[in-house]
């Protein structure tokens, strides 16, 4: 039976993950050895920038050296529009693809997941919008992230922007889980500063949201039916480690973009965030960012970063202990302080990290307008799989109040 509490009364732990994960500088050299047993005809999904790099050519040549046939779709667009997915389907539906490699940022990895699904099982990506609507496995997918942020290399969801519907929609199924992930921090060294900042803020938001999520205490039937079952003891392990890494790594990258150890720490933290959100799920921040991003055309990472100060404050009254622990992990809180003081110190420290990255800390800088607040709130509430994870319930009035504070740069402390 389900226990009604935002805390983990069941002591539940649950992870979903690839069969193999290779982490560390230079591990991209494992790609041909991973791919070869999976098939001889390979499709690489990447974007225009990555396709011009020496690292990309190295990967292609390594695959061809194993007598594999390599096809390339190098037109993946940011925020993965459905039209982009249709283009790939039309180009490769009859190409006899046997294995997919996603090489790039989150959109490239999400494209690889939906390509593996659609080139195997057919249909329109719209047929699979939602949770657990995929009836069986697609083509095997190997993910190779080139940014330190999204965690998409280990998640079993792909997010698509459907222009006709005017919103991002997830295809969520355990069948989308990659068979292998290759996480090579050297691939992030060429990442532009703005993208580094946006993806770093995204990683930070994943770890904070999943660590402060609602624990859903699901029944056996609910565990079988749903992917996102809330904060649990195993996701907490990844959150703690990821937050400890980001306590210094993001600011070290700002100081020296060539710092490979800082890049490695950030990429490992992003991986931890992906491992956590894969069963805990993100929450209110991501629900609210999506319509803001659609309206303002601002990077996802900047949107979630700008919302963090206000959603953290909103959730603080019901997640004080978790925020206090974050304060201790980030090194800004001690047991000599009250729990509330520790929690507030954590939130201030997160804002300092975001500011160092150059992330806007209010919604006005994103270009959001007050006349759009109610529309954003209505759209956010449609993302019920996300709002259901928020530890403090969200109504339309609550979301509008959050947006008003975010627009006014009002970082006073909420009271219930």
Can you put this structure into words, describing what you see?
By secondary structure, the chain is of the alpha/beta class. It folds into two domains: 27-183, 3-Layer(aba) Sandwich (Rossmann fold); 193-408, Dehydroquinate synthase-like - alpha domain (Dehydroquinate synthase-like, alpha domain). The protein is built from 16 helices and nine strands. The strands form two sheets. The protein has a six-stranded parallel β-sheet, sandwiched between helices. Strands 5-8-7 form a three-stranded mixed β-sheet. A hairpin with a 4-residue loop joins strand 7 (157-162) and strand 8. The relative contact order is 0.12. The mean pLDDT is 95. Residues 18-185 form the Alcohol dehydrogenase iron-type/glycerol dehydrogenase GldA domain. GO terms for molecular function: alcohol dehydrogenase (NAD+) activity; metal ion binding.
CATH superfamily heading of the largest domain: Dehydroquinate synthase-like - alpha domain
Strand order of the largest sheet: 1-9-6-4-2-3
CATH architecture of the largest domain: Up-down Bundle
> How many helices does DSSP assign?
16
* Helix content estimate: 40-55%
Strand content: 5-15%
Domain count: the total is 2
- Gap between N and C termini, in Å? 30 Å
Structural class: alpha/beta
Shape: globular
The CATH topology of the largest domain comes to Dehydroquinate synthase-like, alpha domain
DSSP strand tally: 9
Q: Mind describing the biggest β-sheet?
A: 6 strands, parallel
Keywords: NAD, Oxidoreductase
InterPro entries: ADH_Fe/GldA, ADH_Fe_C, ADH_Fe_CS, Alcohol_dehydrogenase_Fe
Domain Alcohol dehydrogenase iron-type/glycerol dehydrogenase GldA: 18-185
Pfam families: ADH_Fe_C, Fe-ADH
């Amino acid at each position: 039976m389900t226990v009604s509490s935002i805390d983990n009364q069941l002591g539940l732990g649950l992870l979903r993950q690839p069969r193999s994960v290779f982490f560390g500088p230079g591990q991209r050299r494992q790609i041909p050895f991973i791919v070869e047993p999976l098939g001889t005809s390979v499709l690489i999904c990447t974007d225009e920038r990555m396709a011009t790099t020496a690292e990309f050519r190295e990967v292609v040549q390594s695959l061809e050296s194993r007598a594999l046939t390599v096809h390339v779709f190098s037109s993946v667009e940011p925020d993965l529009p459905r039209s982009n997915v249709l283009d790939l389907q039309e180009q490769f539906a009859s190409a006899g693809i046997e294995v997919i490699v996603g090489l790039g940022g989150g959109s490239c990895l999400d494209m690889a997941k939906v390509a593996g699904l659609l080139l195997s099982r057919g249909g329109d990506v719209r047929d699979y919008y939602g949770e657990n609507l995929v009836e069986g496995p697609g083509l095997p997918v190997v993910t190779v992230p080139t940014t330190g942020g999204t965690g998409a290399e280990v998640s079993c969801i792909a997010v698509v922007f459907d222009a006709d519907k005017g919103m991002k929609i997830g295809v969520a199924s355990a069948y989308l889980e990659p068979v292998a992930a290759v996480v090579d921090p050297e691939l992030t060294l060429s990442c532009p500063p703005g993208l580094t900042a946006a993806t770093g803020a995204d990683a930070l938001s994943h770890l904070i949201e999943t660590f402060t999520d609602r624990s859903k205490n699901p029944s056996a039937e609910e565990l079988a039916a749903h992917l996102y079952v809330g904060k649990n003891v195993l996701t907490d392990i990844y959150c703690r480690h990821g937050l400890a890494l980001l306590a210094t790594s993001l600011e070290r990258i700002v100081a020296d973009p060539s710092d490979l150890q800082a890049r490695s720490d950030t990429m490992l933290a992003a991986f931890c965030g992906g491992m956590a959100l894969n069963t805990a799920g993100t929450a209110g921040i991501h629900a609210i960012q999506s319509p803001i991003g659609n309206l303002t055309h601002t990077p996802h990472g900047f949107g979630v970063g700008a919302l963090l100060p206000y959603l953290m404050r909103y959730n603080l009254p019901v997640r004080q202990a978790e925020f206090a622990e974050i304060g201790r992990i980030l090194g800004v809180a001690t047991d000599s302080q009250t729990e509330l003081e520790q929690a507030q110190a954590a939130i201030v420290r997160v804002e300092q990290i975001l500011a160092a990255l150059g992330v806007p800390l209010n919604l006005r800088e994103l270009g959001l307008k007050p006349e759009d607040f109610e529309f954003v709130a209505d759209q956010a509430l449609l993302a019920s799989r996300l709002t259901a994870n928020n530890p403090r319930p969200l109504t339309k009035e609550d979301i509008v109040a959050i947006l008003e504070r975010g627009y006014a740069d009002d970082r006073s402390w909420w009271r219930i």
